[in-house]
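Continuing the batch. This is chain 6 of the set; chains 1 through 5 are on the previous pages. Same settings as before, nothing changed between runs. Recording input and output for traceability.
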Amino acid sequence: MGGINLRRMELVTTTGEIVGHKSGLALTREELSTHVPKHLESVWYGDDSELVRIRSEEFEEVVGSILHGVGNIEAAIQAPVGIRIWKKYRNDPMKTVIVESLLAALPEYLENGLKEEAARGDKKLDPTPFLERAGHDHGKDGLDIGAEILLGLNADLHRSPWTSVRRVEWKDVAELRDLFKSESLETLYGDFLDQRFIDYLDQNFGDIGSINWRKFEALACEFFKREGYEVQIGEGRDDGNIDARVWRKDVERSGPPTMLVQCKREKKKVGKVVVKALWADVVHEGANSGLVVTTSALAPGAMKTCTARGYNIDQANRTTLRTWISAMRTPFTGVFLGP
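Output for chain 6:
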């Protein structure tokens, strides 16, 4: 493949623009640099005015590494969809025939689809003709493999810095630093916490203890909301140490909460003073239980206190949080989108 000659500053700004378009995240230069492959650091770092040369495949690797680093794609480097699908089914002779047939039909579908897209002016490829042909010629296996091919193709186009295709048509751009600095809960992509931040934390779980305290409360609320509960997040400051109230779907919000939630984003283990105070709030509000959500865990003394006194208090510790975030992250497969 060929190479690109440009000023180092142009390389950085172009990379940031592409990553922002694809992921919906605005990253500072420092945040971008964190994910640049080590063997390409000599191109990335240095005098901004210096003219540098980067090969096309190296630029693809830089963009892919950053997208992967912020949790936007599954892997920094990945073989094209045709190779991935062929390797997956190469030991199944019947499905190999289907794969070869559908991959051979793919260029015609894309050519016709692009012509129809241009005529409509909507910049979206309709997958229906390809899938109908796959199902007609090869039955259910053909339909399933055809869907895999299109989803894989879409993932390849999303990953590529040479296309404007992205998995989500973001209506705004979220600044990554807001995950750590801002108390704002405003988002178009979640009820309490932006989906882009959840995807980032899934890839960078080690940062969980550094996110803004309000975002940490939002993370817990987002999980319960997606699990089908009614959730009321606390006021933040001066909330009486009740960070969230949670009701089962079948319980009226005018009545006592099903559960009171206390969030502790700290390295040290949560002591018995916290569980005593939480239980007092549970009793006062007539709730069924309490939950401590923490980036660490309940201290042994706190757990003994809950057992000895019959407190119906549980914990969502660091391990639990990892499970929550993985459950909420964006699946790497997605709908077939343009433009």
